[in-house]
From TrEMBL:
SUPFAM superfamilies linked to this entry: alpha/beta-Hydrolases (SSF53474)
Domain named Alpha/beta hydrolase fold-3: residues: 7-76
UniProt xrefs under Pfam families: Abhydrolase_3
GO function terms (MF aspect): hydrolase activity
Protein name, UniProt field: Alpha/beta hydrolase fold-3 domain-containing protein
Gene3D superfamilies: alpha/beta hydrolase
Length: 101
């Protein structure tokens, strides 16, 4: 777990916002959430579970799942200039910019 030294694993609340001990999802200060995953990502299932958990916890929140077809985990970091990475970034920018509308 290079991202979070000292972690106890994939269900550490610092790595998994749905784990016991993690801050309550219903307390998030947003009404819109975008969850991004890649079709071939080994954590794809967790992205979908997180989106469902946020939707259940927030009730009236808008939860959008953006899944990139034909790609794998962190594809946008390995090929940041690739077409699908640029498309992902553009969709994220559009989502953020729409927050004020």
């Amino acid at each position: 777990m290079d991202v979070c030294p000292g972690t106890t694993g994939m269900d550490d609340p610092r790595m998994n916002p749905m784990a016991p001990g993690a801050p309550a999802l219903g307390r998030m200060a947003c009404d819109r959430v975008m969850v991004c995953a890649a079709e071939g990502d080994f954590l794809r299932w967790r992205a979908h579970a997180y989106a469902a958990a946020v939707a259940a916890a927030k009730g009236n929140a808008s939860v959008e799942v953006l899944e990139t077809a034909g790609e794998s985990h962190v594809f946008h970091l390995f090929d940041p200039d690739g077409g699908k990475a640029k498309e992902l970034l553009n969709r994220m920018v559009t989502f953020v910019n729409a927050a004020g509308t």
